[in-house]
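Bug #2210: token dump truncated for Copper resistance protein CopC?
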Amino acid sequence: MEGPPSTIEVWFQDPVVIHEGSIKVINSKGKEVPVLKSEQDPKDAGHVITKLDKELAPGEFTVKINVIAQDGFIIEEEFRFSISNAAKSESEELKLVKSNVSDGEIHKGPPGQIELWFNQPVEVRAIGIFNSRYQPVGTKRPQVDSDNPRHISVPISNTLSPGTYQLTWSASPTNKEMQTVLNNKQGVFYFAVDKFSSMTPENTGDFDWDTLSFSIGLKQLAYWLTFIGLTILFGISWFYSILLKNRLKKTLQKSTQLLFYLVSLVGMTLLIVHHRLDLPELAIKEFLLLKFTWIPILQIILLSLGMWIKKMRLILFGIALILWPFIIGHASYPRYGGYITMIMTAFHIIAVAIWMGGLFSLIAKPKHLERKEWLQRVGPTFSNWAMISVSVILFTGIWMTVEFLPSTSLESFLESEWGRSLLIKTVLFFLLIIIGYVQRKTVKQLSSKFTFSFFKRVRIEAVYGLIIFFFAASLVAANPSAAEQGVYRETPEAPNNLDLNVEITPLEMGLNTITLEFKENPKIRNVKVELSMPPTWQVENNAFQVGKGIYKLTGNLLHGAGTINMKVKVLMENGKEVRLPYTIVVPGEVRNQSENTSI
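Reproduced locally. Full output below:
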């Protein structure tokens, strides 16, 4: 920077929760620079603004970012910048002017050497050619043209076979005064010999067993225990207050409710401890003001009051349960539906609570009742409620899955922890439905012969339910966007009647092929594709024309997981340029990272 900034601004894809230490500025000596309290833009909770307390002197600085995502995940980022004490140099920026093989060109016959022309004399630091299998092609030492030091020739050791090639170069000015960090340039472009071919890596055939793993840590354990305690406590209370309408003088043993009350306390305490370990430098007062701290504390108070006040137990337990989507999971993210999805989540967990709480209530029958009498009294009514709960769970589960994952593939789904957790949870859930169907038939018979097997299957259902809770904990701790993949057009209608179909294979990090197919074969002179990703990554390449209205790009195009912006720039025969914006979602484990920064 030529002068000191007055503010540091960071944009995130989703709303975040900030605290006193969310934005820190560190100078080159490792000392923290005073800043004023960070604030969020009233119109955009993902826009964090921090004003500097004093004017920064020339030098190098590091900005450290620490904010909390809507599901409690801690996002840590950092970037560096420097302030110059000299005026901006008027020297010309190093650029590649032309080459004998052009980006997006299908060259007739193999070139014997690569020739590059720059806008000033250069020193080529590195250059490499890679074939369609992404294997290096032998080249000789770059040669500088004695008559024109801006002209560099790179002889190729062997004849290039037909297909697509990637050329990567790195150069800097020969003038030492101009050899600044900003003037050391790198470039990548693609050309083909005789025909286009997609670039694909050599298949190693090795299976990555890590793709089948699950994260098991303090957060997952806390979620699991809290799921168990909150849902079953509410479910048991509902069972006796609504289903039985408190008609039994002697209900289940207090030790059963006490057990799940303690499970809840342990789970929520571990959750608070987990957040404290993530934010050790935060003052206790500010830590307690975070919703990820005060909501669990409020839930503990509500559960404790519910254990003592029997008449208010169901309401207090219900409020504690409904508060759950506000601090975990992905429903609170605006891009996943916000309040509507949070309402669906609330219905989902209430239905789960009624079902699971009912199962544990059946198991913990009052001692003064025989099994058959207990089954006759509660079996038919609970069976009907269980059917309603299953319907609600199915509907809300499908709703949330569609909201969280609008587009995916089997491969990206299975490679993500979120997808694997959802799959196992769904399989176990349908096993429970099958057992429940058998149980419903048994309830209708109400014979002593089937009573023993009925309660045995209830215990199996309860065990399956606890296992489902574990994968539900993994599900809410994982990132659903890791399983998402797709190409979305940002404009509803194609401008200038350019009906374009975009296909990317494979749609994953690494080597890819982008196929652009224009229908009705419009009159096009050239097609370029710009790919960008916050904060600064941006590349642009010419597309190969491989047929009438069909253009392709290949190479290491999708360099990272997450959202990549793509602009298809179409130059028409009449000289008019039409831009078609797209959003590409690349699957892979990546959290809610900062979208952009400004200083």
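Output looks complete on our side. The chain has a mean pLDDT of 86. Marking as cannot-reproduce; reopen if the truncation happens again.
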